[in-house]
Amino acid sequence: MKGLNLLFACAFCAISINSATIHVPGDQPTIQAAVDIAVNRDTVLVAPGTYAENVYDSVLHSDSIVIQSSGGPDVTSVIPPTGPAFYSALARWIIDGFTIRISSGTGVGVHARRTTVTVQNCDIGFVTTAIGYGTHVLSTKQYSASIDVLKESQDMPLDTERESTHSHERAWPEPGVIGCDLHDNDRAIYVTLINAHIRVSGNVIERNNGGLHLIDAAADVDNNKFRANGSGITHAAGVGIFTSTIYNNEFMLNETAIVSSNYDWADIYDNTFVDNVRAVRDKRGCAIHNNLFCGSSEYAITVSWNGSGADIYNNTITGNAIGIVCSPDVAVTITANIVVNNLEGIVPEAATLDCNDVWNNVSYNDPGPNGISLDPLFCNPSGECDLESGDFGLDPLSPCLPANNPCGVLMGALAVGWCCCVEPIRGNVDGDGSDAVNVADLTYLVDYLFRGGPPSPCFEEGDVNGDGSINVADLTYLVDYLFRGGPPPPPCP
């Protein structure tokens, strides 16, 4: 289980000032008994064990408290007969370090109706729940979640409410789900109705029917792993217009990684999408920048319906069934992307294309104005969509680098890579699979320098002496190493 990140560690230290600690079962026999007597900024510290109880706030008890296990989720579990395990209608809670299950298999793990709740370092799995409405959220409808953050449109915005009540105190963390394992649920995180905003960071969210579901709400979503979910993130239609930021996440083996509705925007950048059925379905006009898409069995990006204004920029899209497909009734800008080795490249319809590299797709290889159709020279594409062995950074001779293309811009999500240079030393100039350094490399380098032969598949291997260029000095160095007892080439960077 992941540790607290620095932000929440600092927040926790600030919260602990001038607060009391109530031990369970040392001071109180149950978590509920400790919560009942806790006052503002107290910590309920729970010893290892299994607690078969539901924990509720009180109608008259709306203080901010920390409910924390002393030993972490591996040794501390809350397993009530029915859900929810934790329910807060009024109080502000930080719930930290529990395994949460429901004995009956039905119910919600943590339910926050109209307040700020942060859930961190928890393992929540195999639960279901109801959809929330009014003051009651225990109806057995088809919706479920492990974290269910539900607000009514008539509720007072709680940040304002709390600041007026406790304006003299240090800030409480924004609501969020931090560093949790959320797995094998119907829905992992379900956020609905007006003006909710949460942070979702550093979680592993896997094998859920739905990962993160937002209705009339927004989220900052970063550094999560979404794996093998029915849907990773769904920005569903409602009555409001909200913008979420989705960055530095890994999406792997999901049915659909991200869906944006016809009302809500998302800024989607610096993510990795690998082996999903569908990666991004944009129906609003999202900003999709600097992402890697590989191995989508249907499509990497589709823009449809109300997606006019979508900006698809600086993405690397390779090895998918379809790279980018746009409906004929939407206006999309597609700029500075690498779209190569797909079954279909860019199916543009009404899109505006500029400065893309579109190459070696079975069909739809038009790069548009100022574009190119050339091998991008990935540093090490041999791993295909295996990010452990492949590197989709660019060789220094790549036509997609700013100095090497007519647009003078970086095409694709990644600049110069390093993994094509294989340890321990440089010198595999011809790029043979054995990584041997021998006379064949010497011949390859002579052909390149003097006979118009091709460059080394990996610049760093061809730069035998490691001085940043490939020239006669590298040839001399290689001859000395192979035939004169000279030093071996320097290691890869």
Multimer state: single chain
Q: Output mean pLDDT.
A: 82
Form type: elongated
What percentage of amino acids are in beta strands?
25-35%
Distance between the termini: 32 Å
The main sheet comes to: 24 strands, parallel
Provide the helix percentage.
10-25%
Structural class: mainly beta
Radius of gyration: 27 Å
The number of distinct β-strands equals: 39
| Total of DSSP H or I helical runs spanning 4+ residues | 6
Structural account:
The chain is mainly β and 493 residues long. Among the domains are: 1-208, no CATH class; 425-493, Type 1 dockerin domain (Orthogonal Bundle), CATH 1.10.1330.10. It is built from six helices and 39 strands. The chain has a 24-stranded parallel beta sheet that branches. A 13-stranded parallel beta sheet has the order 3-6-9-12-15-17-19-22-25-28-31-34-37, with no helix packed on it. Helix 2 (31-37) links the parallel strand 1 (21-24) and strand 2 (43-46). The radius of gyration is 27 Å and the shape is elongated. The two termini are 32 Å apart.
